[in-house]
Design a protein that fits this description.
By secondary structure, the protein is of the alpha/beta class. About 40% of the residues lie in helices and about 15% in strands. The protein has a seven-stranded mixed beta sheet with strand order 2-8-7-6-5-3-4, sandwiched between helices. The chain has a four-stranded mixed beta sheet with strand order 12-10-9-13. A two-stranded parallel sheet has the order 1-11. It is globular and about 65 Å long. The two termini are about 35 Å apart. About 45% of the residues are buried. Mean pLDDT is about 95; it is low at about 385-400. Bound molecules: ligand C6P.
């Protein structure tokens, strides 16, 4: 058996999505901007995908949803164009974000800092989320944008987006959320919150890699990042990637249809996994699980280095991660654990397990058995753990750094 437990890094493409995409690689390959029937033949499919996207996040008719190449592009677009529109060509000079954003937000903010923009990286609480009152206290009359993720890719913790939206509305500041780990996993209703932009990525909800989207409230002004032709009303130039757009729309519909029952099923499996792993001594998970996306757990096993665990799990054909896939090659400590206040040694013990709606009970059972055996094996050979913990039996708890 092999088990994929890294669905926050990417997901399997749903076979129904593959089926919907296939004709647009072969017989329906025209450029949608061509006026002949080869081109116009794909218009109904693009229109359907757009409708599926609007329905999936409950966007209003006057909002825009623009397809991009990935969420990294969507995040770059909002941050860089806010800089152009509000800072270079306006009277603002400040962006507020958090310490725990994905690198596509943090690196873009660092780039903007190099251009002279003032950026505030908000600290998180012991749950790994930023609190709304913290956001409020850092907004000034020079703040152009607040950018706060909807849910953490590392812990699954859900941020107080509704409250932050109200604060941004009251202060007259644009509000962006990187909703990559929320869309398709929990209900995201852009009419229920005050929000100007959200970033999405198809491959996080069983769509293809290499296609994302940006939601723009009331089609408001945001200078293009990609200049060129008139595609997407000139908002994002480049020939439309029809099969991928069709795939993203289909994936969105499949993920958000009956989302509550999908969530309940994933949550039951995740909780079973989490409860079983917390039976191990000296383990804890980050963040209260009722406020997490239903598929995610970040577990720390004292005395067991995360990379060693990954290696052992991989030998058992289990795919997991120590955190964001973008940082995993650097063997870095888990960034959220560091932000919460864990020391480097502890932050190197984090293992992220992320399920999907395709994860089975049998797979969960397999992971429980293999994971527990791996911990015992690795603790057996870890002399430093043996020195610190001569008698096993410490606390197993949620979020106890
Ligand atoms: N996070 C992870 O292992 P792209 O690859 O551009 O479609 O998505 C980037 C991205 C942006 N925001 C968040 C919150 C994300 O989780 C990701 C992708 C993966 O956590 C790969 S680094």
């Amino acid at each position: 058996m092999q088990v994929y437990m890294d669905n926050n890094a990417t997901t399997m493409v749903d076979p129904q999505v593959v089926e919907a995409m296939l004709p647009y690689f072969s017989e329906k390959y025209g450029n949608p901007n061509s006026i002949h029937k080869f081109g116009t033949g794909s218009h109904p499919a693009i229109a359907k995908a757009i409708d599926q996207m609007y329905a999936g996040i409950n966007a209003a008719d006057n909002d825009d949803i623009i397809f991009t190449s990935c969420a990294t592009e969507s995040n770059n677009w909002v941050l860089q164009s806010t800089w152009v529109d509000q800072i270079l060509n306006g009277d603002k000079n400040h962006i507020v974000t958090t310490e725990v954003e994905h690198p596509s937000v943090l690196s873009t903010c660092k780039f903007l800092e190099d251009q002279g923009v003032k950026v505030t990286y908000l600290p998180v609480n012991d749950q790994g989320i930023v609190e709304a009152h913290t956001v409020k206290s850092f907004i000034t009359d020079k703040t152009a944008l607040v950018s706060v993720m909807w849910a953490s890719n590392e812990t699954g913790m859900i941020f107080p987006i509704k409250e932050i939206g109200e604060i941004c509305k009251e202060k007259g500041v644009l509000f962006h959320s990187d909703a990559v780990q929320a869309v398709g996993k929990i209900p995201v209703d852009v009419q229920d919150v005050h929000i100007d932009f959200i970033s999405m990525s198809a491959h996080k909800f069983h769509g293809p890699k290499g296609v994302g989207a940006l939601y723009i409230k009331d089609s408001q002004k945001l200078s293009p990042l990609m200049h060129g032709g008139e595609q997407m009303n000139g908002r994002r130039s480049g020939t439309l990637n029809v099969p991928f757009i069709v795939g993203m729309g289909e994936a969105m519909e499949l993920a958000t249809k009956n989302i509550e029952s999908k969530m309940a099923s994933m949550r039951a499996k995740r909780d079973r996994l989490e409860d079983a792993l917390l039976e191990l001594s000296d383990t804890f998970t980050i963040g209260e699980r009722d406020n997490r996306t239903p598929n995610t757990l970040l577990i720390s096993i004292r005395g067991v280095e995360g990379e060693g665990m990954l290696w052992d799990l991989n030998n058992g054909l289990i795919g997991a991660s120590t955190g964001s896939a973008c940082a995993s090659e650097d063997l870095e400590a888990n960034s959220v654990m560091l932000a919460i206040g864990a020391d480097h040694e502890l932050a190197h013990t984090g293992i992220r397990l992320s399920l999907s709606r395709f994860t089975t009970d049998e797979e969960v059972g397999y992971v429980i058995d293999h994971f527990k055996a791996a911990v015992l094996r690795l603790r057996g050979i870890s002399s430093s753990y043996a020195k610190v913990q001569p008698t096993p039996g410490g606390e197993a708890t949620e979020c106890a750094i």
